[in-house]
Design brief:
Blueprint: E1 22-26, H1 30-42, E2 46-50, H2 53-62, E3 69-73, H3 81-91, E4 96-101, E5 115-118, H4 123-135
Parallel strand pairs: 1-2, 1-3, 3-4, 4-5
Helix pairs in contact: 2-3
Length: 139
């Protein structure tokens, strides 16, 4: 366990703060959202959750800092993930999108996402999918 180091007036302040990449996790199942958030936070990402399409649109619209990646479930109560995808592209144009589903990717020809992640997924698969689509970002 790390020992806390007391700060005093002579402790140098950091000159730059590197913000963590932000991920929006959109899934109607609370347990999946929570587990995905914990997995991604443990990997160093800042995570925001949305339970449906309306919440995802709201989070994307109101975000103070843009999202780097959106992990988007195909099955949402108010819209399908593939229906929501073009709107998210407009709202968070620089974000990469990973579509998730319990169905095989072949069921979603031309889904339009930057990546696909089959459920159930492990921490390693989730983090690898987020890193893979982030590597596609030229900025």
């Amino acid at each position: 366990m790390p020992v806390p180091v007391p700060l005093d007036d002579r402790t140098p302040m950091p000159t730059t703060i590197v913000p963590r990449s932000r991920v929006l996790v959109v899934d109607d199942e609370p347990s999946i959202r929570t587990v995905a958030r914990l997995m991604l936070e443990r990997a160093g990402y800042a995570v925001v959750e949305a339970a449906n399409a309306a919440e995802a649109v709201s989070q994307a619209t109101l975000a103070e800092r843009p999202f780097t990646v959106v992990v988007l479930d195909f099955t949402l109560p108010d819209r399908s993930g593939t229906d929501l995808l073009p709107e998210l592209r407009r709202l968070v144009s620089r974000a990469r999108i990973v579509l998730t589903s319990g169905r095989p990717e072949d069921d979603f020809p031309n889904h339009g996402a930057d990546g696909y992640l089959a459920k159930p997924f492990s921490r390693d698969h989730l983090v690898a999918a987020v890193r893979a689509v982030t590597a596609l970002t030229p900025w």
